[in-house]
Amino acid sequence: MTQLVIISIYLALLLGLGLYSSRLFSGTSQDYLLASRSIGPFLLLMSLFGTTMTAFALVGSTGEAYKEGVGVYGMLASSSGIIHSLCFFLIGVKIWRLGHKHGYLTQIDFFRDRLESDKIGLLLFPVLVGLVIPYLLIGVIASGTVINGVTRGTFPEMFADSKGGVPESWASLVVCVVVLLYVFFGGMRGTAWANAFQTIVFMVLGLVTFCVLATELGGQDSFFANLRTASAAVGEDKLTRHHITQLQFFTYMLIPFSVGMFPHLFQHWLTAKSADSFKLAVVAHPFFIMIVWVPCVLVGVWATTELAGVPDQVPPNAVLAFLVKTKVGETLAGFLTAGILAAIMSSLDSQFLCLGTIFTNDIVLRYWGRERFSEKQIIVMARVFIVLIVAVTYGFSLFEPRRVFQLGVWCFSGFSALFPLVYASLYWRGLSKAGAYAGVVAAIASWGLLFAQSGFASNPGFLVFGMMPVATMFACSTVAMVLVSLVTPKPSNATLAKFFG
Amino acid sequence: MRNIIWLLVIVLVILHQDCWFWSDTRLVFGFIPVALFYHMCVSIAAGVTWFLATKFAWPSDPAQDGTVD
């Protein structure tokens, strides 16, 4: 019960933060959607990092390390430290400059202008929304799993079917509603502040979780003795990468390129006060990833030992919650759970807001005209669309869940396959409208085909020619984009001058 | 200097593919698996590389930089 009280207080604090930030709201859609492009370096760092660290990073990494070993860190975390900052450096700063100069609100705004094509928006919109839904699903699934995991046994009669804990479906619903409310009240400014708060919370509490679990598992007098005891108990198979080939490991490095095309990160980039605001994020990102992932991966492999006593029937997604529930006291478990939820919710908020933004800006206002609607009506439309998408995602979450890590990899792979498009649009004059279309179609067609062949993420070992499926998708989209661009007309000289000086 | 930064990034990508610790089960400081420790060092090296990039290779556009109107 204590855990539930602490979690409830935490959720109430977030709501309060959203309400408070709404007092700074100027009433314009520009302020609601982009915080009037006023976000400085610290808030930008916390927003970008909080948004990229999702359930995937805490719940997923622990669960995947539990299944596959320490190789998980090299597979995704250290590569993300290189590639995410590369994307901020190469893509983010340029996008900010162009967005600042030409008033873009969304990715689709940018691509329409760059490619002199209105219809690229109609192609990209369902693709981006469709790929964001699995990303949302990760957060929705994980939040339900975590809350159920830490409250098990608290209500043995009321919730007998869910092992005495708050049912996952109920917990997910509450988290969705809380995030929706503070996004609705605060818009992008509220989201940025909530992200900063939640990033601090999950980084600090993540480290606390690590230290407490090390102490509980080790049972020694000193902290380092506990660390050594816990690690010494880990089987050799979890210390090596025997389960993965070097080719597969190398192609995992394509997955962090997804950051270059996440629509919600695009929106965060556009909120920056200046290009220099990106510097702190570029430098700190690899260090922050390390601070979050290393403890999670260690806890994941420690969970495989007899010291942890994790029963075989505990699914990977629930390993972290199980350890928090069984190894620490109720009060601390409540705080640690709040930390996990912070990581989950700091991504959901940006994704929710971004969906509302692209719907209103790129579809409704584009085709029905901005002059038809008041600022208030624009904001209401955004909110209605967000609720619809969240409802669809929540509906998916009620079916058999996949491993959070696997679902995340598939989602990121889809966005990675679109990276060649954004890179070419900023650095290659030769990109044509038809080439862009070809690239997007090839990306999503290859993604859909391979996703279906993998049993919709049910097969964690699915590879293509011994490589991660993302390599095939990346290659398909690049080849299609380049070949078609080479034989089709380029944008006008005026447009090229606008983007290339 | 910009070319040196890009070279460092390429070196990081190459070093990331650490075949030499693939089957190594040693624990650094008695508790960090060596594969994990090595990649922590890659993360730190990435942070340092990007710091150098912000100092010596930051794309400048004086007409654009600065606060929003």
Poorly predicted residue ranges of chain B: 64-69
Secondary structure category of chain A: mainly alpha
What is the arithmetic mean of pLDDT of chain B? Answer: 87
List the helices and strands of chain B in order. Answer: HEEH
Uncertain runs of chain A are: none
Mean of residue pLDDT values of chain A: 87
Q: In DSSP terms, counting alpha (H) and pi (I) runs of 4 or more, how many helices of chain B?
A: 2
Beta-strand residue fraction of chain B: 5-15%
Fraction of residues in helix of chain A? over 70%
Outline of chain B? elongated
Number of helices of chain A: 21
**Per DSSP, what share of the residues of chain A sits in E-state strands of 2 or more residues?**
under 5%
Rg over C-alpha atoms of chain B, rounded to the nearest angstrom: 17 Å
Could you explain the architecture of this structure?
Chain A has 21 helices and no strands. Helix content of chain A is 74%, strand content 0%. Chain A has helices at residues 2-22, 29-34, 41-52, 55-68, 71-102, 107-115, 120-151, 168-218, 223-232, 236-239, 246-251, 263-270, 278-302, 319-327, 330-368, 375-397, 404-417, 419-427, 433-453, 469-486, 493-500. Chain A is an all-alpha fold. Chain A starts with a helix and ends with a helix. Chain A is globular and about 70 Å long. Chain B is mostly helical. Helix content of chain B is 55%, strand content 6%. Chain B has 2 helices and 2 strands; from the N terminus they run αββα. Chain B has helices at residues 2-16, 34-56; strands spanning 27-28, 32-33. In chain B, a hairpin with a 3-residue loop joins strand 1 and strand 2. The longest helix of chain B has 23 residues, at 34-56. Chain B is elongated and about 50 Å long. Residues 64-69 of chain B have low confidence and may be disordered. The chains are: A mainly alpha (501), B mainly alpha (69). Chains A and B meet through helix 5, helix 9, helix 11 and helix 13 of A and helix 1, strand 2 and helix 2 of B.
